[in-house]
C-alpha cells in the first residue's frame, strides 16, 4: 500500500485516511484499489473493531478523478466497464463490511465522495462540508449511489440531489439525515472516536448480525452489476464527452441555457 491511503489505529478503530490532498482526494484507479485493500484488511484485522474513513486536506473526496476519466471518454473498451465495476465493488465492500464504519467528513464530499459517505454506517461532518451529485451536469449518471442515497434521505430529496446536481451544506445534510452529526474541525476525529468506543462495547457477532439484518431489510432490487453498468454506459456517449470537455474548459455544457 502506497501513501495515498494510510491505515493506522485510533483506539478500537482502524483509521483509513485518503491522502491525495493535491487532487482533493479524487478517486483514481490506484486509490480505489488501495481503499479496497484497506477495507479488506480491516475485515480480518483483530485490532479493528470498526473503521473510520476520513481524508487529508480541504476535501473528504471530490469524486472520480476526471482527468483519468477523460482518457476513456467515448472509448468502448474494457477499461470503462472495469473502472465502474471496481468502484461499485468498493461501495458494496464498505456497505456490507461485517464491522461498523464511520465517515469522518473533513470537507467536500461530492459525487463518488458523497457515495463513500452513504455506504458508511455513520457519518459526522465539519460545518463547511458540501455534499452532492453533479454528475448529470457532466452528462454522467450517479447510478451506483442511488440505492444508498435513497435509504438515507428518501425519494423526494434523492430526486432533488440527483436531478438538479445542486450541492447541499452540512446543516441541510443533517436535516435530510444524510449525515448523523456536525462538529467543529478540531473535534471531528474525537467525535468519531467516541462513536468507535461506543461501537466497541457491542458484541462483534451481534454487530455483524445487526448489519446483515439491516442490509436484508433494505434489500435493493437492482444488482451491483446493473448499477455499475448504469454508471459506465453514459461514459461512452457524446453527451458525456461534451459535458466533461466543457467542464475542463470552464464553459457551460452545450445543453445549458444560454
Characterise the protein shown here.
- Helix 1 (29-44) runs parallel beside helix 3, helix 3 (78-96) packs parallel to helix 4 (112-119) and helix 3 (78-96) packs across helix 9.
- The strands form 2 sheets. The protein has a 6-stranded mixed sheet with strand order 1-2-3-5-7-10, sandwiched between helices. Strands 4-6-8-9 form a 4-stranded mixed sheet.
- Helix content is 47%, strand content 16%.
- The chain contains 10 helices and 10 strands.
- Helix 1 (29-44) links the parallel strand 2 (13-18) and strand 3.
- It has one domain (5-186): 2-enoyl-CoA Hydratase, Chain A, domain 1.
- With 258 residues, the protein is of the alpha/beta class.
Shape: globular
Query: Which stretches of 5+ consecutive residues score pLDDT under 50?
Result: none
**Could you give the count of β-strands?**
10
CATH class: Alpha Beta
Instruction: For the record, give the distance between the C-alpha atoms at the N and C termini, rounded to a whole number.
Output: 47 Å
Helix-strand topology string: EEHEEHHEEHEEHEHEHHHH
Residue fraction in strands? 15-25%
In total, how many domains does the architecture comprise?
1
Main sheet, how many strands, which sense, barrel? Answer: 6 strands, mixed
Radius of gyration: 18 Å
Return the CATH architecture: Alpha-Beta Complex
- CATH-defined fold name: 2-enoyl-CoA Hydratase, Chain A, domain 1
Given helix and strand content, the structural type is: alpha/beta
- In CATH terms, the superfamily is 2-enoyl-CoA Hydratase, Chain A, domain 1
Mean pLDDT score, rounded? 90
Helix content: 40-55%
Annotation field: number of helices: 10
Strand ordering within the main sheet:
1-2-3-5-7-10
Amino acid at each position: 500500500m502506497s501513501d495515498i491511503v494510510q491505515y493506522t489505529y485510533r483506539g478500537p478503530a482502524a483509521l483509513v485516511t485518503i491522502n491525495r490532498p493535491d487532487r482533493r482526494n479524487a478517486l483514481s484507479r490506484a486509490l480505489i484499489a488501495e481503499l479496497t485493500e484497506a477495507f479488506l484488511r480491516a475485515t480480518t484485522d483483530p485490532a479493528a473493531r470498526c473503521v473510520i474513513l476520513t481524508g487529508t486536506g480541504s476535501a473528504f473526496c471530490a469524486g472520480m478523478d476526471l482527468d483519468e476519466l477523460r482518457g476513456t471518454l467515448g472509448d468502448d473498451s474494457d477499461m470503462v466497464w472495469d473502472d465502474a465495476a471496481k468502484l461499485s465493488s468498493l461501495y458494496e465492500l464498505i456497505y456490507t463490511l461485517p464491522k461498523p464504519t464511520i465517515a469522518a467528513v473533513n470537507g467536500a464530499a461530492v459525487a463518488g465522495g458523497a457515495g463513500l459517505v452513504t455506504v458508511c454506517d455513520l457519518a459526522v461532518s465539519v460545518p463547511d462540508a458540501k455534499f452532492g451529485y453533479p454528475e448529470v451536469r457532466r452528462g454522467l449518471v450517479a447510478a451506483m449511489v442511488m440505492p444508498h442515497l435513497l435509504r438515507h434521505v428518501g425519494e423526494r430529496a434523492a430526486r432533488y440531489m440527483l436531478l438538479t446536481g445542486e450541492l447541499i451544506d452540512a446543516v441541510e445534510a443533517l436535516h435530510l439525515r444524510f449525515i448523523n452529526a456536525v462538529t467543529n474541525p478540531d473535534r471531528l476525529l474525537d467525535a468519531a472516536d467516541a462513536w468507535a468506543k461506543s461501537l466497541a462495547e457491542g458484541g462483534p457477532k451481534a454487530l455483524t448480525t445487526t448489519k446483515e439484518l439491516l442490509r436484508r431489510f433494505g434489500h435493493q432490487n437492482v444488482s451491483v452489476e446493473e448499477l455499475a453498468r448504469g454508471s459506465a454506459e453514459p461514459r461512452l456517449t457524446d453527451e458525456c464527452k461534451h459535458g466533461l470537455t466543457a467542464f475542463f474548459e470552464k464553459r457551460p455544457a452545450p445543453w445549458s441555457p444560454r
